[in-house]
Amino acid sequence: MINKYEITVLNSDELLILGTFMCLEDQNILVAMEKATKKFIKVGCRQGGCGICKIKVINGQYTKREMSRAHISKEDEENGIVLSCCIMPKSPMKIRLLK
Amino acid sequence: MALNGVLRTALVQIRVLDMDKALTHYIDRIGLKEVCRTSDGRVCLKAYDEFDHHSLVLRKADTAGMDFIGMKVLDEETLSNFEKATKEFGLECESIPANSDQPGFGRRIRVSLPSGHKLDLFATVEKSEHGPMVHNPEIWEAEPTGMAPTCFDHALLYGTNLKETTKYMTEVLGMKIAEKIVKEDGDNLCVWLTASTRPHDLAILDYPEPGKLHHISFHLQDWSAIGHAADIMARYNISIDVGPTRHGITRGQTIYFFDPSGNRDEIYAGGYEYFPDHPTRTWDATETGKGIFYYERKLNEAFLDVVS
Fold first, then answer.
1. Interface confidence: ipTM more than 0.90
2. CA–CA gap between residue B214 and residue B262 (Å, rounded)
3. What is the pLDDT of residues B266-282, one digit of tens each?
4. Which positions of B are annotated as active-site residues?
5. pLDDT at residue B185, as a whole number
6. Considering CB atoms only, which of B62, B63, B262 is closest to A47?
7. How far is CA B65 from CA A27, A58, B307, in A?
């Protein structure tokens, strides 16, 4: 049984909830958003290379895969600034867009 | 033989985040062949219908993108002449000895383009054991696999100083502008440069950041091969950018898709034949959508934003 979690997307100043969608734990949240026909986050390569889908995790657990250091520094990664195509949820998550 | 100077774009080295995933993508899905591995862990690949040692090199790194692109020139004398002319033009030029970082390759001249890219020029490359047959030749020695690309075709680079880069490519290397998109201020937005009868061997778009890669492109036989490639992309959930569609510019049939590190690949078929007496075809910037994606008649959001 693959778990499914709700992803809540907020705008960049965290004042507005833009919407939610469901994401399987083996699925990255960008592709889950596309499958749900939502358009909160800009879609680029979906492979961790182009950096266009960068977001900030407000809360929630997740696993991640390699992301280009041209876009996500070690410090970013430790602070939850990640590429949404490279993170898979392990709990419900709240994320926000970046300015 | 009338084709001289630059012959074609024949070598590219790109960075990948995960080598195993990259090999599955480029070998099993696209259908390139592994030629060799270097002592520092890079992997050299080629397409079945190429004679030369290799054409694509993958290097494991923590960023995606392109290390350099290479063009083969007619002979060593041409290479020396280009070296001299490049220095006279005022671009930085480095000499890389034979058989150093690229197995099977002779001396290379590395030019620092004003666009921020490294362009290697070379004349001598060992023939691959896995090249096309030359005696009573079959169409191929072993049937092509995956998307069955015949050869590396071209790349689209995004970088700075397009005017100066184009001046170098045309005035020093003798390439022709097959097509261009012109902005309202009269400057070029993008040029399609050819050294051969292909409608492009290299395209370059004017961009605020230097040294970016838009895509590397592999040649497929025809429209039905593009359809088969699309089936492979769907079956293996390969990240597609756009297509199958056609370019207005070059008239080539295409799919843009991404490798597992976010480098954009293209498979490309068709396109007209270019000859050096042909005039440049000019597109107004307002018609860019149709020029790039002929059927959609508009750019997708990723075309101008998503690079590696």
1. yes
2. 10
3. 999 999 999 999 999 99
4. 154, 200, 215, 247, 256, 266
5. 95
6. B262
7. 25, 30, 8
